[in-house]
Design a protein that fits this description.
Layout lengths: L14 H18 L6 H8 L3 H7 L3 H12 L11 H16 L4 H10 L6 H25 L9 H18 L5 H23 L3
Helix pairs in contact: 1-2, 1-4, 1-6, 2-3, 5-7, 5-8, 5-9, 7-8, 8-9
Amino acid sequence: MARSTSTTQGRPRDPDVDRRVADAAIDLFGAAGWAGFTVEAVAKRAGVGKASIYLRWPTKEALLLEALRQRFSGVTAVEPANVREELVQLALQLFRRYVGDTGQAAFRIALEASRIPGVAEHWAGIRNSQVVAARAIVRRGIQRGELPPDTPVTLLLDTLSGAVMNHVQTTPPVAPEEREAAAETYSRKLVDFILANATAG
């Protein structure tokens, strides 16, 4: 008999339980990956009964997917300015994904999404949002004469996102209150490097 995906009739969902379970799921996935991700372990971290989780989500795949939907969204369109500022905005969005409480889970999902049913599609949508945003930035940059007409979007985005991920992984973490300033400083240096190569010659 399939488990219900909703709470018992007449009993309202407790938003605090939902939040604790989602936070615990993200923390556990970041620490242990899909191989170590179990409903029992999530329940223990969240301080709730396993039955409470199964009343909300019938499988561990559904649980992880909902937690990711709550904590990870796609790249949003950047505010039109000039190509340098737009690329810095994009880099900062990527930074915010890979640092802080959700950072480890973001790295895990980038590696493991393809083998988790449902999650692969969600992560593909997030990745596609990066491509859409980068294409729009390059298109505007070409129209304004800031970039050559043959600027390769894929190579530019690979360089930007790969550098951000590598920097987060290899640089000692900074205090939360210094995180945004450090990310912006690096993002500006990175974008200047990318643009210098994109416009060379």
